[in-house]
Amino acid sequence: MRRNTPILLLAVGHACVDVYQGAVAALIPYFVAERDYTYAAASGIVLAASLLSSVAQPVFGVLTDRWAMPWLLPASTLLSGVGIALSGLTGSYGLTLVFVAISGIGVAAYHPESARVARLAGRGSHTAMSWFSLGGNIGFALAPITVSLAVGQGSLRWTPVLVLPALAGVALCVPVLRLLNGHGTATSGRTSPTQAPDDVRAFLKLSLAVIFRSIVFTGLSTFISLYAQQRLHGSTTAGTLALFLLFLGGAVGSVLGGSLADRYDRVRVSRWSYLLSAVAVAGVIHTPGPTMFLFVALTSIGLYVPFSLQVTLAQDYLPSRIGTAGGVTLGLTVSVGGLVSPLLGRLADSTSLQTALTPLIAMPVLSWLLFLALPEPVNTHKPGPTTQEASLDPR
């Protein structure tokens, strides 16, 4: 196998999983239309996807710091798909929350182990991690289209069709597992800690910055489709396009972030991207007419430039616990945004969507302020020729 094959397979598998994170937001307009949910009730579905995920993902991160568990990749991919597939089959709001939460647990189980494996497979390269993140962004971007094709021409009863990406993702995991199973140290036993010191204070500041990023991205992904429909006279196409651009721009931002980080340091790149994001979010909320689509794309790019950089920064701040670092930055801090969505929904119900979304402009500014206090790791940890890395080297 070629040297870059593991990263390629992991990126595609990441796309298959993150389709289900994007699918939750993409299904919101259908739940509102078919079941007459209020904004608060609809955002509660996003909360259900985020709540268990936010707690479970760091737990899986701690476990992967102790034991390598590559079998989690196919198992969690399947669980993510099954939950979403079942979410439209019941008229019960409670059961809908349960099924969406099951999908969230699958997403939680996937990310820490996949981030650990991706870091080893990419030998600590920022570019390699950005390509891994790109897979997830593509999955996000394809979610509105996938949901529209499956549900848009019928009803929520067609959600079982949405299990197909999960089945494809499981099949794509097989070559990766075969590669890992050919080398015992990556598939069993305890992972090898590094001797580099942890910078817990910097890690906590970074985590808080990611939380603020998560709040603005999750808030927009929950309501941007409905907001675009309102702004453009009830056009469902406008809502799908806005959500698609919000997710697609992340693909551009992730690759751009990795490229810029190889030229400049990660902290500096992240600072500038958050300033861009603040301006872009203001444009999304307050610019009239179709111009909002341009600002949606700029918002997505700005929020995703630092995305993969924050993962490697977290792993460098906690080099002895890279699974935990990945679980927190890819899971806990990202999922916290879903906890805020019901508050935005209640505010929208009592005022308007524009009023509820306006506070999101401040979130990237807060992330920027935190990055002003963050150092670029001097001795950036990159996996050396250890037995664990060798087990992922196809040469």
Tally of alpha and pi helices = 16
CATH-derived architecture: Up-down Bundle
Assembly of the depicted chains:
single chain
- The chain-level structural class is mainly alpha
CATH fold-type name: Growth Hormone, Chain: A
Poorly predicted runs are: 183-193, 380-395
The average pLDDT score comes to: 82
Give a verbal description of the structure.
The structure is a single chain. By secondary structure, the chain is mainly alpha-helical. The chain has a single domain (5-390), classed as MFS general substrate transporter like domains (Growth Hormone, Chain: A), CATH 1.20.1250.20. Helices cover 77% and strands 0% of the residues. The protein contains 16 helices and no strands. It has helices at 5-35, 39-66, 72-87, 93-121, 126-151, 164-181, 184-187, 200-231, 236-263, 266-286, 291-304, 307-317, 322-350, 353-357, 362-371, 387-390. The model is unreliable at 183-193 and 380-395 (pLDDT under 50).
Defining key terms:
single chain, 395 residues, mainly alpha, Growth Hormone, Chain: A, disordered C terminus
What is this structure's SSE topology?
Layout: H1 5-35, H2 39-66, H3 72-87, H4 93-121, H5 126-151, H6 164-181, H7 184-187, H8 200-231, H9 236-263, H10 266-286, H11 291-304, H12 307-317, H13 322-350, H14 353-357, H15 362-371, H16 387-390
Tell me briefly what this model is:
The protein is an all-alpha fold and 395 residues long. It has helices at residues 5-35, 39-66, 72-87, 93-121, 126-151, 164-181, 184-187, 200-231, 236-263, 266-286, 291-304, 307-317, 322-350, 353-357, 362-371, 387-390. Helix 1 runs parallel beside helix 3.
